[in-house]
Write a structure and sequence with these properties.
Strand order of the largest sheet: 3-2-4-1-5-6
Radius of gyration: 20 Å
CATH superfamily of the largest domain: P-loop containing nucleotide triphosphate hydrolases
Order of helices and strands: EHEHEHEHHHHHEHHHHEH
């Protein structure tokens, strides 16, 4: 067993979309002479920049980012894929004596990275065929409604359009009689290969919603619709899983002529607000997260300093009395 002081030390910045995670992570990475490992299930995809709120080229030039632009939209990618690649990146950063900042809003990716994955029972092909028949007959809403009826807690953290996770939750419940939520909690994701500081960013709900709406407008102004058109022009089907993600699926419909642009933008804002609520529900269930107002520069940095001082590396800025180079303002 690895002693606690020998484990790689991670600062993990999490919270709802539009809360300011990127800016906070960059400031922390500069503070601890570190690099950033992205834990975002959409930013892994190439050519999907605007709609995923990917760090800009300037931001990526400021601090090196890992696990961004690593697969094409038609390539498979999962939590297990993320865990494997992220752990490899962290091992390399630890070997090089770099500070490590993980940031993203995909709760499952963060949980898998920090504690491993819950395997559960194997796939049951007969059950999956029955769910596929329901999907064909009643669509995604019908399948999701079954999950809400049978396992409301799982439904609370699974998006109605996420067919794979909906089917898996139903399958686990049917095969074991126990909610996948309970089984994940019992598993505890308890491998714990890292020494971790979890920083959660929060802000008043009305302010968060204002930021979500403003960012959606900014995305459209930057060319989100043109980005989606470009993806279709490159031959990526609108039916691909990443193309069915929030924002992309609405604009695919606009380009196919089945949804008006104004209606699509309204839908994106509404669904993004709902997504932020689900993120808050997910992260709110983790008692290890230290929550800070997004602008609380001193509180965030003091917490980071305490983690680094527990076992400073030879390259830590704290080793020689270093100070913050890029304040959170």
């Amino acid at each position: 067993m690895i002693r606690e002081q020998e484990k790689p030390r991670l600062i993990v910045v999490m919270g709802p979309t539009a809360a300011g995670k990127t800016r906070t992570a960059i400031a922390l990475a500069e503070f601890c002479n570190g690099e950033i490992v992205s834990a975002d299930s959409m930013q892994v995809y190439r050519h999907m920049d605007i709609g995923t709120a990917k760090p800009t080229p300037a931001e990526q030039g400021q601090v090196r980012h890992h696990l961004i632009d690593i697969v094409n939209p038609d390539e498979p990618f999962s939590a297990a894929s993320f865990m494997e690649r992220a752990r490899a990146a962290i091992t390399d950063l630890h070997r090089r004596g770099k500070g490590i900042v993980v940031t993203g809003g995909t709760g499952l990716y963060i949980r898998a990275l920090l504690g491993g994955l819950f395997d559960g029972p194997g796939a049951d092909e007969a059950l999956r065929r029955s769910y596929a028949a329901i999907l064909e007959r009643e669509g995604k809403p019908g399948l999701y409604e079954i999950l809400k009826t049978k396992d409301s807690r799982a439904a609370a953290i699974i998006h109605p359009n996420d067919v794979a996770r909906t089917v898996r939750a139903l399958e686990v419940l049917e095969l074991t009689g126990v909610s996948i939520v309970d089984q994940q909690q019992d598993h505890g994701f308890a491998q714990r290969p890292y020494s971790v500081l979890k920083i959660g960013l929060r802000m008043e709900r009305p302010r968060l919603y204002e930021r979500i709406e403003a960012r959606t407008d900014q995305m459209m102004a930057l060319g989100f619709l043109e980005e989606v058109q470009g993806l279709l022009d490159m031959g990526f089907s609108g039916d691909l899983k990443p193309m069915q993600a929030l924002g992309y699926r609405q604009l695919v419909r606009v380009l196919k002529g089945t949804l008006g642009l104004e209606e699509a933008v309204t839908s994106i804002k509404r669904e993004t607000r709902r997504y932020a609520k689900r993120q808050l529900t997910w992260f709110g269930a983790d008692p290890e997260i230290s929550w800070f107002d997004a602008g609380d520069r001193e509180g965030i940095l003091q917490s980071a300093r305490r983690l680094l001082e527990r076992n400073p590396t030879s390259r830590s800025p704290l080793q020689s009395g270093g100070t913050l180079q890029n304040p959170l303002t």
